[in-house]
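Translate sequence into structure tokens.
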Amino acid sequence: MNKTLILSSSLIALTVLAVSTAPANAQPKKKTVTTTFTILADMARNVAGDQLTVTSITKQGAEIHGYQPTPSDIVKAQQADLVLYNGFNLERWFEKFLGQLKKVPTVILTSGVTPMNIADAEYKGKPNPHAWMSPKNALIYVENIRKAFVKLEPASAATFNANAKRYSAQINAIDKALKTKLSKLAVNSRALVTCEGAFSYAARDYGLKEYYLWAVNSDEQSTPRQIQKVIDTVRSNKIPAVFCESTVEGDGMRQVAKETGARFGGTLFVDSLSPEVPTYLKLLDAFASTVTAGLSGQ
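Result follows.
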């Protein structure tokens, strides 16, 4: 028999065997959504349910402002069917990153959020990017995710709609819980002193004054001037406790605590999830618990 004919017959037999042995209930491959950081990924998973595969470019605990994408990050995003990012100049690296992707649809999740501008003069007119620290803003994120998913996978619209409704109810519930916890603070203790000015939206929502060493982590310095300014603020306002975020070094704020006699109230999570706060809702709850305990001396 001709060798070519033998080879062709063998390939046909293997193909038939592969088809015949494939599971009868094999599911089509799910579409993939990639987000720029872990908090957005958690939100997206709550809306997607089991209808989509959601991944994050950055890992838990990563500092997202000055992140340096790797070649594998580009490959991961290029293979995605949709990319979600925060906007408001948070992911400064993302614009360059985006230029290396080919025709991957993207959605900015802060679309529709009213920004709070950074107070520092050098950032005049620049929005504070940490809008998700307001549960009210998070509801806008969820709606943007829902609409993007319905467009991406119309056949699963009913699932996305139901999941978004359920998740939004959970966000509203955590908002009420935060108000209850933080309302217990004494009037003279309602001041939030942190390393990064990442809590403007939360401070606005829950009636806290906000002070910080630097405006955004990408400009992290902890200069003597910054530290002295916060020391003077803590002393003059008799602020009982100060805090720092999980993704930066807290040496500068610990110096503030030492110089003023204020307590170091603990670590706050804002830019990234972690084993301690594996979900966005737990991040918000931990924020309220840590701030309340620190400022009330518990």
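Note: The CA atoms of residues 66 and 219 lie 9 Å apart.
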